[in-house]
Structure formats: C-alpha cells, structure tokens
Specification:
This protein has one domain: Thiol Ester Dehydrase, Chain A (Roll), CATH 3.10.129. Helices cover 26% and strands 36% of the residues. It has 4 helices and 7 strands; from the N terminus they run βααββββββαα. The longest helix is centred in the first third of the chain and has 16 residues. The protein starts with a strand and ends with a helix. Belongs to the 4-hydroxybenzoyl-CoA thioesterase family. Keywords: Hydrolase. Pfam families: 4HBT_2.
Length: 138
C-alpha cells in the first residue's frame, strides 16, 4: 500500500477568529493529498479530464479529532482505502507537527463521462490506472 505525505503550512486565511482551521479547508487539503497520491502513482487528473473523463466526489466523511492552528505545519497522509474498478475510496489522516491526529476520513469517487455523467469502467478505459490502484490499495 502506497501512502503519500503532503506538507501544508496553515495560513491565516484558512483559520477562523480563534486561529483554528475552518472545517471546510480540510476538504481542500484532502484534495491536495489525493492529487499528490495520483501523481506518485505516475498519473495526472488533468490527463484524465482531457480524455473526457471526470472523477466527482460521491461521498465524503471526515472526523475532526483535534484543531490545526495558524502557523503550524500539518501533514496530509493519503492512500487508496478501497477500489472496485468503478469506485475509488481514498483514505486521509491529517496530523499536526506535534504528531496529533487532527482529522481522519475518506472520500469516494467514480469516474464518469464528461458529457453524460455516466460511470465508466476504469479497468477498460484506463488499464494502467486500474493496475496501479489494484497494486496499491489497502
């Protein structure tokens, strides 16, 4: 199983009046982690989109454990939690610089045709992606 680690400096604009990261910003950080994981596998979302395929989020679940704060550095750990050939579930863990888990969760995605939003079979459409996901899933 491949786990990537993305380092993020918590910026002031990402926090609320208490200096704590606003909850929606964790979603952006998960997207950064997911993109870096895909690149570590040797692929790019942009190339998939150029071929007319999108990968929308169908479900997301994050559990908030401890606050990340302005001025800290956090690490977003990302992996392939599950893969069915049609649906991909990415796992996430966001840890602050003290090693405390701030967030744990997952997001589910399906690949769809841009024009119709009908799901595609990743194994048939992107056999290289399929092979990598099979190899590196949990």
């Amino acid at each position: 199983m491949l786990i990537t680690e993305s380092k993020i400096n918590v910026r002031y604009a990402e926090t609320d009046q208490m200096g704590v990261v606003y909850h929606a910003n964790y979603l952006v950080w998960c997207e950064i982690g997911r993109t870096e994981l895909i690149e570590a596998l040797g692929f790019r979302y942009a190339d998939m989109e150029k071929s007319g395929i999108l990968s929308p989020v169908t479900n997301i679940n994050l559990s908030y454990k401890a606050p990340a704060k302005y001025g800290e550095k956090v690490t977003v750990r990302t992996w392939i939690e599950d893969y069915t050939g049609i649906r991909v579930t990415y796992g996430y863990e966001i840890i602050n610089e003290e090693g405390r888990q701030c967030v744990a969760g997952y997001s589910e995605h399906v690949c769809v045709k841009n024009e119709t939003f009908r799901p595609i079979n990743i194994k048939k459409q992107f056999p290289d992606w399929h092979e990598a996901y099979e190899k590196h899933k949990k």
